[in-house]
Give the backbone structure.
Amino acid sequence: NKGKTDSSNKIVIAKAYDKELYLEDVKKNIPAGSSKKDSIAILQSYIQNWLQKQVILKLADDNLNEELKNVDEQLEEYRNSLLAYAYEREYVREKLDTSVTQEEIETYYKEHPENFQLKDNIVKCIYFKVPNNIPKLDKIRYLYKSQKENEIQQLQQYCFQYATDYYFNDNDWLLFNDLLKKVPISAYDKEQYLKNNRFIEVNDSTSIYFINIKEFKIKESLSPLNFEADNIRNLIVNKRKLDLVAKMEKDAYNNAIKEKDVEILLPKK
């Protein structure tokens, strides 16, 4: 049913006490290109939420004393915070240099080693999973231990054809716990297991799993630089952001003092 219109010819689609909800206000919240079905669902949900909010506001208005209902000061403080945040965000967007060189990353890493202690074990490895009845199993056992480029390529081609899961990105560090989610290894002492195992072959009722651990680092040791590079880049940019905002606020305040736009009126002791 279509709502009635008020004196301004706005379509009223819901009422709560002395307040009215207009169709044009809700339409702003319906994404362009929404289907008729989605639009109706969004409209109904918005109306329901609006009515529930009005009921709670009426309860608050009827039951809170005047002191508790006086939120003008809180609203002003909230508005001021929003304005300051919006200005800082735009200022940072225009002024912040987000480019970070490899040299800056390396310098930060060397100067803050205490910040880069591993919280988990990490490995560089190749891994693949093949069915139990796979052909040429002996050849696979040889190839996955090989360091020769042509034999590694043979293994990759084999895995593309037969493996049900594989990972050959052995230049990047991988959380050992993520590997354990894929492979049925029982390792109560994970650090000791890594120290004692390089070539791993395990199986379950349907599959055989092969792992060649090329390198590993134990938790609480120094995390590798390339494992931390993205984190360091974000830390550097965030520090620049904080410094930029702090300088802007200090310069703006000093300039306002200089121009006598602001002043402290308390008597000097």
Q: What stands out?
A: Residues 150 and 183 are 26 Å apart (CA to CA). The chain has ten helices and seven strands. Residues 225-258 form the longest helix (34 residues). The chain has a mean pLDDT of 89.
